[in-house]
Amino acid sequence: MNTEDFRPEKKATVFYPPQRVLMGPGPSDTHARVLNAMARPTLGHLDPVFTEMMEEIKGLMRYAFQTKNRMTFPVSGPGSVGMEMCFVNMIEPGDKVIVCRNGVFGGRMIENVERHGGVAVVVDDKWGEPVDPQKVEDALKKNPDAKIVAFVHAETSTGAQSDAKTLCEIARKYNCLTIVDTVTSLGGTPILVDEWGIDAIYSGSQKCLSCPPGLSPVSFSDRVTELVKNRKTKVHSWFMDISLLLNYWGSSARTYHHTAPTNALYGLHESLLMIYEEGLEHSWARHRYNYEALKAGFATLGMNYVVKEEHRLPQLNSVFVPAGVDEKEVRRRLLDEYNLEIGAGLGDFAGKVWRFGLMGTSCRVENVIFCLNALETILSDMGAKVERGTAAAAAHKSYAAKPMF
């Protein structure tokens, strides 16, 4: 055998990624502290020093989620794995699940229900609007045998935030468990797991936590762990079976389950520590503070929001593309000329909206001003009727009117 026959067609070289400013729907910029943490020496995943850090991660995650749930830990995989972990553990064949869909990720919940043998009862709301609690209650009245209510707290495809507290109250009224997607909300807007009575929740490391993609924080109530223990059938995924993971993440005497991504967990530990040091309330306020300034700048550029003010996520800003503007060309020029990444629309909004992220480390005053100046320049060059200098000025006026520090 000649190994040279299998050489890649293009010569492989050391990869040096460009330095971007990430202001799309995720990932966000990774803080230098997190990158430095990930570069530290690798330990074995059962090393006693590493397991001490695992305990710290669990405590920091409980703080971020505002919960005392024992089963609070990061899944080795992105937010989509966190989503699947919830559904695969909680659904048995034939179980009926009320699934709320007001964007792309509610649709993915439906897919999970059906793939795991459940029956999805879909509650639809218009893209850009929150989940309607009355529709959910009506669905529960019509389906008294429903077992779970699943919804997206922060819909990344639109920037809409639903009322998780009310939806969980309704679910409990009808003796249903809840599954809540907080991939885009954790760290950026309030999430109170215990106070709201959330049973199963998942998020992602790459948004408001400003850690690279690849880990999914999850938390399960005692009601869920009891449900899993009393299942009639085995969980259809060995890797995601929380009854097995209890022996790794839930026990002080660690039993081998899988080789955890140690260096990635160093990074998550550091990012959670940074949230703790800043304080959750301060982090929520910082995201709101920079959103208000970005919003003021957008208004001068004729960019209108998809979501009404009262339902809008400060960390995920979806705006309609101004009439006559080539949305792809604007995104291309922002990336090529300014190393600035923003997001395109998904699904029904493809080609119609831009999505601007203000998440974690990316949520900074200098990023807001930089983004507005770049947008203003490009739109002006493309013939849009914008007055140069007004966008950044409007943002500065917003900052001055409501000083945060």
Quick summary:
Substrate binds at residue 355. With 405 residues, this protein is α/β, with parallel strands linked by helices.
Folded structure, characterized:
This protein is an alpha/beta fold and 405 residues long. The chain has 2 domains: 32-276, Aspartate Aminotransferase, domain 2 (3-Layer(aba) Sandwich), CATH 3.40.640.10; 279-401, Aspartate Aminotransferase, domain 1 (Alpha-Beta Complex). It has 14 helices and 14 strands. It has a 7-stranded mixed sheet with strand order 2-10-9-8-5-3-4, sandwiched between helices. Strands 11-14-13 form a 3-stranded antiparallel sheet, covered by helices on one side. β13 and β14 form a beta hairpin. The protein is globular, with a radius of gyration of 22 Å.
Coarse shape: globular
- What strand line-up does the widest sheet have? 2-10-9-8-5-3-4
Give the count of structural domains: 2
- CATH topology grouping of the largest domain: Aspartate Aminotransferase, domain 2
CATH architecture of the largest domain: 3-Layer(aba) Sandwich
Number of helices: 14
Cα-based radius of gyration, to the nearest Å: 22 Å
How far the N terminus sits from the C terminus, by CA atoms, comes to 67 Å
Q: Care to count the β-strands?
A: 14
Mean pLDDT: 95
SSE run: EHHEHEHEHEEEHEHEEHHHHEHEEEHH
Portion of residues in beta strands equals 5-15%
Low-confidence stretches: none
Structural class by SSE content: alpha/beta
Main β sheet profile? 7 strands, mixed
**CATH homologous superfamily caption of the largest domain:** Type I PLP-dependent aspartate aminotransferase-like (Major domain)
Q: Helical content, roughly? A: 40-55%
CATH class of the largest domain: Alpha Beta
